[in-house]
Amino acid sequence: MAETIYKASTTAPVNIAVVKYWGKRDPKLNLPTNSSLSVTLSQADLRTLTTATCSASYQGQEDSLILNGEPSDIKGARTQACLRELRAKRAALEAENPSLPKLSTLPLRIVSENNFPTAAGLASSAAGFAALVRAIADLYELPSSPTELSLIARQGSGSACRSLFGGYVAWRAGERDDGLDSKAVEVAPASHWPSMRALILVVSAAKKGVSSTSGMQQTVATSDLFKGRVANVVPAHMAAMEAAIKDRDFAKFAEVTMKDSNSFHACCADTYPPIYYMNDVSRAAVRAVQAINEAAGKTVAAYTFDAGPNAVIYYLEEDSAPVVGTFYNLLQSTDGWKDEAKSYSSTATQLDETTS
Ligand code: ADP
Ligand code: DP6
Ligand code: CO
Known about the structure:
Pathway: Isoprenoid biosynthesis; isopentenyl diphosphate biosynthesis via mevalonate pathway; isopentenyl diphosphate from (R)-mevalonate: step 3/3
Bound molecules: adenosine-5'-diphosphate, ligand DP6, cobalt (II) ion
Strand order of the largest sheet: 1-6-9-7-8
Keywords: ATP-binding, Lipid biosynthesis, Lipid metabolism, Lyase, Nucleotide-binding, Steroid biosynthesis, Steroid metabolism, Sterol biosynthesis, Sterol metabolism
Domain Mvd1 C-terminal: 198-356
Shape: globular
Organism: Daldinia eschscholzii IFB-TL01
Order of helices and strands: EEEEEEEEHEHHEEEHHHHEEHEH
Catalytic activity: (R)-5-diphosphomevalonate + ATP = isopentenyl diphosphate + ADP + phosphate + CO2
Radius of gyration: 21 Å
Strand content: 15-25%
Structural class: alpha+beta
Largest sheet: 5 strands, mixed
Number of helices: 9
């Protein structure tokens, strides 16, 4: 008789931080040096699609992960930590309900695809690990809440804990050594400020030279500027950002977003040897945002850059014309600008509406 193949598929969105996570206080448990805050983008534009299967017919084989059509490493400690926790939760369910199939003992096959550049500074690790954890949790029929899953996804990639929620999401750094208080919480649903938009400009789809994991550990080890960021800058930015979101104050939201991106990239430049994620086109995008805001006579656009050259521009729907139209006109006269540079326009997402 053919063995059953158990299967679950899910999608997960990208999130782009407006107060950045950069630095681990515990690399093993993936605990951050500071809290962070992000906006979850619509899955209509950028998303990871992951399918997890397990079957007795896979017995004797190892767990496997196919990422964007290529076999990918699943043995890394961080992926293993996610699989171990999910299996332990399933094993506990099976112990309570002996009639359940013993899925926790079966090899897993995971197939995942990102519909946007991987490892290029567009949060593929965030969408990727959020999808991986939720696909397996669904496969195992775990009764876990998004908060519980965020604790597991955090161990795969820190930023992934925020992609389990829609809208405006904080990752509270927490204080405990076991990391049980280092998790994502919703600050406001997308419906609280539904006109928020993100324009994503893919300056380069190439894999970054320094991964986020390695870059932030070099910064923690060598940057003096970073100490001030953690002690003073981030706490002030977190408080101001939460107030700006609560009050739907775009000018404040934009100022903190741009200052926090500047502070993060300054710490990268202060790393020894320095790390430069932004390039000439990224800097032209910064100037374009300044020009747009000056022309408007108020703040209508905010730039932010993750660990890569690609720009994310936050703006409000009602300002689409001055922001999106002008942005391209300004960049087209930039050296190094490629007409084939791709862009996406995205809305903040209410996760419940879009996830399976
Ligand atoms: P990014 O800026 O895209 O998040 P990172 O350096 O943080 O770049 O992480 C990239 C890594 O995340 C990839 O090399 C891969 O190991 C992992 N990753 C990306 N997408 C997925 C996915 N869909 N499923 C599992 N892992 C993924
Ligand atoms: C600049 O979450 O990718 O995008 O935990 O080592 O996987 P790991 O790092 P990752 O770092 C993201 C850094 C950032 C800022 C952010 O998303 O908050
Ligand atoms: Co990442």
